[in-house]
């Protein structure tokens, strides 16, 4: 990204030298570029220019309050998946009408709170959920706006753990059951049908799965509307990938040009469109700075032990995901091949394998593409506090989350009498 660059031999995020950030705030440290987030959003907005369309940021990717504020101020809506995320977006200044609520397991309490907040729509994932939502809304004298998440059964060509639109998946309503579910929804007293949605997976790097999913959805829209149930909006979910290593995902505007052309060709150009991107708005806006603690030569491998771990950066352990790891200061030294690992007591606690690095203990490294699904998936495993986060805006640095200390972690615990 243009926001992350070596100037001379020092790595900068916007106009801030990262070495300075690490010195000032300690490590591990997450730093995000505001300009990079806004540029990613602008690519979607360009793709949609002149259309009735809205971006709902899927905040599970990074739900830190200040990140949400940046998107709220830029006119984004939000895709939430829990009552906790609802409170976060409201705290960040979003309006109920900007919010859609996804997820397979919404509780009655979460539904009630979302109805009180006046959210735009519930993305419902099963017939039993329709019944419960209708009952909750009817109790409050309301009609809940619903969209059904259908499972288009297309292969997103990505990692199996983040594929969600195939037949064997827990997500969505099967394509063949969708009409019946819509008829049920239209008949229930506490519901109002407003749309249709899908989400086929994440880190998608090709256009074709999206086009296939859109075709399958439009087939359903034909059938559902023929049965007398109008579908006001079509939501294509999230999932657009980013470059971690050598991937070449389509740009958001290019992807949308293809999708809009298909919509127009099939006569659905007039619909309200929605998308729920997470990773592609924040992933490459963030880096995690980490200090090299020890270099440990081994018989088969050399280890570079850093102060960030799987509790901060869980993606390699969970998905064998690749994140680039680069020095903050280009060094003249001779590179050695290391496995870059954290201090946590698990063999799965690695951040990068077989990386060529010229480093010394005390050096700082940057783990790249750490803006999405890192802090939001961070844990306290090994009683490690979650890291500090800063937002960089030009040459200004805002601390947006203080480092968690042990007292924070012990606060809710009770000793026996
Ligand atoms: N909408 C729904 C209903 C979703 O389930 C998701 C992500 C999104 C939107 C946003 O997808 P995105 O644009 O970020 O791909 N932890 C994994 C990714 C899990 C994605 C879960 N659902 C990872 O680190 O790769």
UniProtKB/TrEMBL annotation:
Residue sites binding substrate per the record: 279, 315, 319, 346, 373
UniProt record, GO biological process: lysine biosynthetic process via diaminopimelate
Superkingdom of origin organism: Bacteria
Coiled-coil annotated residue ranges, if any: none
Residues annotated as the enzyme's active site: 345 (proton donor)
Quaternary structure (record): Homodimer.
Function statement: Specifically catalyzes the decarboxylation of meso-diaminopimelate (meso-DAP) to L-lysine.
Family under the similarity heading: Belongs to the Orn/Lys/Arg decarboxylase class-II family. LysA subfamily.
Name of the protein this chain belongs to: Diaminopimelate decarboxylase
Organism: Ramlibacter cellulosilyticus
Gene, per the UniProt record: lysA
């Amino acid at each position: 990204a243009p926001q992350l660059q070596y100037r001379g031999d020092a790595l900068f995020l916007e106009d801030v030298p990262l070495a300075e950030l690490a010195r000032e705030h300690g490590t591990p440290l997450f730093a995000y570029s505001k300009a990079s987030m806004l540029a990613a959003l602008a690519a979607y907005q360009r793709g949609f220019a002149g259309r009735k369309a809205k971006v709902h940021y899927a905040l599970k990717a990074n739900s830190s309050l200040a990140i949400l504020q940046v998107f709220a101020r830029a006119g984004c809506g939000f895709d939430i998946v829990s009552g906790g995320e609802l409170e976060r977006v409201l705290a960040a200044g979003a309006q109920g009408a900007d919010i859609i609520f996804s997820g397979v397991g919404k509780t009655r309490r979460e539904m009630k709170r979302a109805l009180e907040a006046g959210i735009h729509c519930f993305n419902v994932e099963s017939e039993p959920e329709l019944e419960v939502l209708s009952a909750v809304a009817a109790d409050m004298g309301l009609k809940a706006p619903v969209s059904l998440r259908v499972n288009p059964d297309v292969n997103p060509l990505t990692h199996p753990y983040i594929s969600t639109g195939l037949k064997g998946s827990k997500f969505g309503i099967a394509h063949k059951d969708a009409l019946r579910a819509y008829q049920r929804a239209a008949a229930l007293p506490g519901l109002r049908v407003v749309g249709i949605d899908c989400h086929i997976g994440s880190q998608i790097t090709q256009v074709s799965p999206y086009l296939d999913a859109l075709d399958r959805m439009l087939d359903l829209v034909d059938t559902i509307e023929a049965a007398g149930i109008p579908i006001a909006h079509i939501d294509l979910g999230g999932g657009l990938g980013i470059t971690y290593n050598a991937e070449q995902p389509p740009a958001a505007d290019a992807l949308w040009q293809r999708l809009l052309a298909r919509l127009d060709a099939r006569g659905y150009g007039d619909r309200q469109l929605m998308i729920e991107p997470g990773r592609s708005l924040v992933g490459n806006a963030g880096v995690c700075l980490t200090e090299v603690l020890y270099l440990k030569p081994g018989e088969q491998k050399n280890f570079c032990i850093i102060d960030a771990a799987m509790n901060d950066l869980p993606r390699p352990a969970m998905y064998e995901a690749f994140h680039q790891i680069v020095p903050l200061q280009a060094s003249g030294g001779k590179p050695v091949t290391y496995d870059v690992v954290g201090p946590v007591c698990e063999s799965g606690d690695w951040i990068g394998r077989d990386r060529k690095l010229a480093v010394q203990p005390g050096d700082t490294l940057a783990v790249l593409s750490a803006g999405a699904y890192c802090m939001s998936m961070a844990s306290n495993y090994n009683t490690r506090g979650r890291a500090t986060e800063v937002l960089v805006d030009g040459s200004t640095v805002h601390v947006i989350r203080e480092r968690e200390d042990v007292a924070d972690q012990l606060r809710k615990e009770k000793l026996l009498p």
